[in-house]
Amino acid sequence: MRRLPPHAYFVVSALFHYLGPAFAVLLFARVEPLGVAWLRIAAAALVFAAWRRRLRFTRTVLAWGAVLAAMNCCFYEAIDRLPLATVAAIEFLPVIVLAALGARTLRNAAALALAVPGVYLLTGVHLSGEPLGVALALANAALFAAYIVLAHRASRDAGIDALGAAMVVAAVLVTPVAIHAAAPAFTDPVALLAGIGVGISSSVIPYVADQLAMARLPRATYALMVSLLPATATVVGLVVLTQVPSPTDVAGIAFVIAGVALHRARPSGTPAASTPRPAAPPSPTRPPSRAATPTRAASDSRARP
Length: 305
Fold this sequence. Notes:
With about 300 residues, the chain is mainly α. The protein has helices spanning about 5-25, 35-50, 60-80, 85-90, 95-100, 105-125, 130-155, 160-180, 190-215, 220-225, 230-240, 245-260, 270-275, 285-305. The protein is globular, with a radius of gyration of 26 Å.
């Protein structure tokens, strides 16, 4: 699995990032959004607890778990009130700031210039439509930006083990708040199995793929690639929820994909490989000749007496 390019893992993450929530929307007829959020987090926590044996609860993990708990609750409450693509676009807006912090070339700046209007065209967000839904989506967006920062930091250290520990923390924190909303699923086997499926497809598969991608991608590169998520949400909404995109949505998708394709990450290790080269040529010539002179002089002085 390590031989695959990191972008392949991101494609998996992007697909399941909204495929699971799209099925969760269908589950809202049986369980409240907050209850579906609990089922998702609890199911993922059980999978990680059984799969990963080295769960370390550092401060980063605790913060990450708190972000995961709040983010999932805000996200499900938002998609209950707004279209999936709209929430995806709002979710992206703070993330582009992370990409802008790392865009130090004209090429990357042009990529951002394409991605921003693409997201705007893709969604056509109207803040006056559903103020509570927009507020929840904005809260989810801020938490998603924090998720990228914390997940990228953890990917360089404990990786999937840290993710498992964070998901356990999220389950502990969200249980007092949301378990009552999940109560109908305990007597409904179909809803319970669907909730477990949502947890695996929404939290286990995409989050593990995120860790595998983040471990080999700079944070700014990953943050800009996240701009592909609104396009993914639009396609998933079309297939699963029959939300037909307009010509404006199609134009937005084209802008977003163009921005992702234009962006290029700085190869890791380039500065380190380029710095020693100028100093290499002079070293082999002069020092040996200078070192040889005292040796010959010393041998001559010893031979003369």
